[in-house]
Amino acid sequence: MRAIFHADRQWGIGRGNDLMFRLPLDMKFFRETTAGKVVVMGLNTLRSFPGGKPLKNRTNIVLCPDDAGEGVITVHSPEELLAEVKKYPAEDVFVIGGASVYRLLIPYCTEVLVTRVDAVGGADTFVPDLDADANFALVSESAPVEDNGYRIRFCTYQNLAPIPF
């Protein structure tokens, strides 16, 4: 299992249940990386999509206490989520948000794909600082590129001690 997100300098990922930045290159990377794969999210992330609809061309798994609606697989507990995720090849499963789902599942992820934005976005939602976590190592980093007025880098972090499930 892997996680994917963009984060500002302070590891902020969102504001007001939305992204802080409109980054076409990052969105293209997200679409291409997750197309045909499994995406795992919480209900607020699902609701943040256009029309609150699941992402097309992906298997959408939503962790929430109630039924998340049509076109998704709803799981009601972390245990049920991990059991569902085991049905798919690990490299095809991507955790896509929100913050509580990232905090829950990043320790299980073997890899985290982070688009680092060289800005402070006024976030109200954050993920753990992987640079400060001894279990994670930055294993690749692109040269900075310009994306809609922001400098971004595509980074890959490896989890040196993922929790087995």
Any overview of this molecule?
The protein has four helices and eleven strands, in the order ββαβαββαβαβββββ. The chain has one domain (2-159): Dihydrofolate Reductase, subunit A, CATH 3.40.430. Helix content is 19%, strand content 33%. β3 (38-42), α2 and β4 (59-63) form a beta-alpha-beta unit. It is globular, with a radius of gyration of 15 Å. The longest helix is centred in the N-terminal third of the chain and has 11 residues, at 24-34. The protein is an alpha/beta fold and 165 residues long. Strands 1, 3, 4, 5, 6, 7, 9, 10 and 11 form a nine-stranded mixed beta sheet that branches.
Write the layout of secondary structure elements.
Blueprint: E1 2-7, E2 12-14, H1 24-34, E3 38-42, H2 43-48, E4 59-63, E5 73-75, H3 78-85, E6 93-97, H4 99-105, E7 111-117, E8 125-126, E9 136-141, E10 145-147, E11 150-159
Parallel strand pairs: 1-6, 1-7, 3-4, 3-6, 4-5
Antiparallel strand pairs: 2-8, 7-11, 9-11, 10-11
Outline type: globular
Record field, number of beta strands: 11
CATH class: Alpha Beta
CATH superfamily grouping: Dihydrofolate Reductase, subunit A
Give me the secondary-structure category: alpha/beta
Count the domains.
Answer: 1
Q: What kind of oligomer do you see?
A: single chain
What is the structure about, briefly put?
The chain has helices at residues 24-34, 43-48, 78-85, 99-105; strands spanning 2-7, 12-14, 38-42, 59-63, 73-75, 93-97, 111-117, 125-126, 136-141, 145-147, 150-159.
